[in-house]
Amino acid sequence: MAWFEKAAEAPLRVPTEAVWTVCPSCKAYVEKAEWKATDKVCPRCNYHDRMGCRERVALITDAGSFKELNAQVGPNDPLKFKDSTGAYADKAKATVEKTGIGEAVLTGTAAIEKIPVVLAVMDFKFLGGSLGSGTGERILLAAEEALKLRRALIIVSASGGARMHEGIVSLMQMAKTCAATARLKEAGLPYISILTDPTTGGVSASYAMVGDLNIAEPKALIGFAGRRVIEQTIKQKLPDDFQTAEYTQSHGFIDAIVPRKEMKAFLAKILRYASGAC
Amino acid sequence: MAKKTVGQQETVQEVKQTAWDIVQIARHAERPNIADYITFMCEDFVELHGDRLFGDDRSLIGGFATIGGEKVMLMGHRKGRGIEENIEANFGMASPEGYRKAKRLMKLAEKYHLPVVSLVDTPGAYPGCEAEARGQAEAIAHNLEFMATLKTQMVIVITGEGGSGGALGIAVGDRILMLQNAVYSVISPEGCASILWRDGTKAALAAETLKITAGSLKSLGIIDDIIPEPKGGAHTDAAKAVAAVKKAVLDNLAVLKKIKLDTLLQQRYDKFAAMGRF
Q1: Higher pLDDT, A63 or A14
Q2: C-beta atoms of B145 and A185 within 8 A
Q3: What does R_g of chain B's alpha carbons equal in angstroms?
Q4: Do A149 and A26 belong to one domain?
């Protein structure tokens, strides 16, 4: 073996990603152990990074209380959709295998400081948290479960919007999920919506915005149309804080912005105020 | 397949129409608009203005109407005809005020025991800075919940462009009808092409793939019936096209009025709950 070949195959560098997490917002290097200890909140800029649905369940419910419902409900491919990067059916299948969560939302029953609830937690990892037919079905079934058990429903959103690959069927999931939350309200049951980064498009324009309480995580992106679309429409640059949780709250659409560490205790407090409704 | 312009519709009828051909007809400047429906379909119309909160959206209008002797609440998007009207009507892209006005009128319809007739023709909800600030997502979301449980008969007609959430915001009802050359989609073909194909010129392909035409939507179970148009499209004979819509609306209202309200609401819930259940 020639000397120059040998040199090329043995890099001396320790891979950065083994030790550090780079904050997606302020690009600060944070030690992996610290990133984990803060539940993925940047100690420098307070950005609340996207979180897997199971991590989220562990964070806001009593240990061991979560029981998944309707795990069998998964993506459908009503259009037999194919784009330049391939078939949606293959992408969906690969995503299910990779993430192990079956759909962009995990639903089940749980307890928060011993108060029983029905919980739906979206996961951005699953096709951008997009609202597909399986997602909508799981949310509708969760709302129906809350109605049956007379419990509060909590939905944690994290989604770019409707799942284009399912076309008009994905649009109809907005109407479908809202029909379900409307029934809960008619029955006088509490529905609490938590908006995390990002909650936009068809999800913000359906169940995420109609909670009795809308709660957001700090700095989460919340809005209807995408920033680029708006900039193209109005031909102006938008301010940096446009469509942040703080912006949305100042315009009257968010009751409270709650840091991740305090979320469980805050939810428990709200649920105690709402207990007369269950 | 060769791309055809609207001026070449005679050839459109001879060869097989593509989804993209139909998009052009749905967007035709001379296609019957809400003003034509008011003129040719209604014996009487009393426009009601304003959302009682902020303003009076000229992109979405409504009021009391009499159609073939039936008193109804009529509402619909307004694109306007001619550039001045187009601008005043913001090309049919409604703002939160429009959706909130629609909600107010629907509430009034329920109170006065009038059926709701909703005519859908919009490229989408307005993606602007003020629309975001005043809660475009919240306005649409609340309409979805509200329409799901509104205690009166509701007939929806997709007359031209059914553009995503902006269409859906007034399109939840007991019967969803669609004109032969109307389209209804989660995203515009151009938008889908630029996101999924990363190429805006692939709009014709995206239109085909998204299955946005009346025939496709009927087979997907999203719409109930297709209203036939005059040969060449509704703009070739507006009076005839509007008469067909009038007949379809009255036929459907007659059927709906025979159904008990509780049953009607349950059927409406079941209809949307079943969408995307395969």
Answers
A1: A63
A2: yes
A3: 18
A4: no
Does residue A86 share a domain with residue A33?
no
Co-location of A19 and A106 in the same domain: no
Work out the average pLDDT over A185-213. Answer: 98
Residue type, A234: I
- A37, A101: one domain: no
Q: Is residue B104 part of a domain?
A: yes
**Which residues of chain A have a CB within 8 Å of the CB of B163?**
none
> What distance in Å separates the CA atoms of residue A263 and residue A61, rounded to the nearest whole number?
10
Task: Chain B: give the shortest CA distance to residue A264, in Å.
Answer: 25
Tokens 């009021």 — which residue? B63
Residues 62-81 of A with CB under 8 A from B: 76, 78-79, 81
pLDDT, residue A13, reads 65
Residues of B in contact with A133 (CB under 8 A): 275-278
Binary contact (A168, B136; C-beta < 8 A) = no
Give the one of B132, B147, B211 whose C-beta lies nearest to A243's C-beta. Answer: B132
CA A151 to chain CA centroid, nearest Å? 21
Do both A43 and A84 map to the same domain? no
| Domain-located, residue A81 | yes
The arithmetic mean of pLDDT across residues A8-32, rounded, is 80
Q: Say if residue A19 is in the same domain as residue A142.
A: no
CATH code assigned at A62? 3.90.226.10
pLDDT at B12 exceeding the cut of 60:
no
- Tell me if B213 is assigned to some domain: yes
Asked whether A159 and A153 are in contact (CB, 8 A), the reply is: no
Cβ-Cβ pairs closer than 8 A, A with B, add up to 182
User: In A, which residues are within 8 Å of B200 by CB distance?
Assistant: none
C-alpha to C-alpha distance for A6 and A213, rounded to whole angstroms: 62
A179 and B198 within 8 Å at the Cβ level: the answer is no
Residue B12 belongs to a domain: no
A78, closest residue in chain B (CA to CA): B220
Residues A31, A136, single domain; the answer is no
pLDDT category of residue A6 using cuts at 50, 70 and 90: low
B16 interfaces chain A, CB cutoff of 8 Å: no
Q: Compute the average pLDDT of residues B42-46.
A: 98
If one counts the domains in chain A, the total is: 2
User: Are residues A29 and A164 both part of a single domain?
Assistant: no
Q: Which domain holds residue A217?
A: 48-277
CA atoms A177, B277, B167, B49: torsion sign: negative
Q: How many domains does chain B have?
A: 1
Could you give the C-alpha distances from B138 to A206, B131, B165, B245, in angstroms and in order? 8, 10, 11, 31
